[in-house]
Amino acid sequence: MSARAIEMLVEHRDEFVGFLVKRVGERQLAEDLFQDAFARSLDRIEQVRAEESVVAWFYRTLRNTIVDHHRRRGSSGRALELLAGELAEATAPPPELHKSICRCVSQLADDLKAEYADALREIDVNGVSVVDYAAARGITANNAAVRVFRARKALLGRVEKTCGHCAEGGGCSDNCTCAHHAI
Hints:
Helix content is about 70%, strand content about 0%.
């Protein structure tokens, strides 16, 4: 029955995706949710007793997927609000810290996506609060917090890739010995 059940799900794919689009509002998100639900269902499809009930069973699976998606989105939204609050209250780093930052960092930051480089420059270098940065850019504080978080993560990855072992553990500083430091 498993092969026929999978065939039935594939035959109804467009209907399933349409069902999801109506509930989540975005075609690409609906496609992603369908793929996730389909992949998770492959292990459990044998539990369906009658071939005719496969489609109904999968609709229940899709409903559960939608609920899970909204829960994750809600919890991530709350987490982003907390992060935005923390970043808004954060103070600028002391001036002596700027002196100890490896010169590779500023060069690599300039190569990030423009919005990431801008966020790092304004928030981390110029000391603009996340809330003020967001207002100046016409975005939400949550969006600004996410942007600076992603920018920091991207920059860290570039520094580690470029500077290698001198950047391990955040130890890359003005005494950096990597070949790129002299640039």
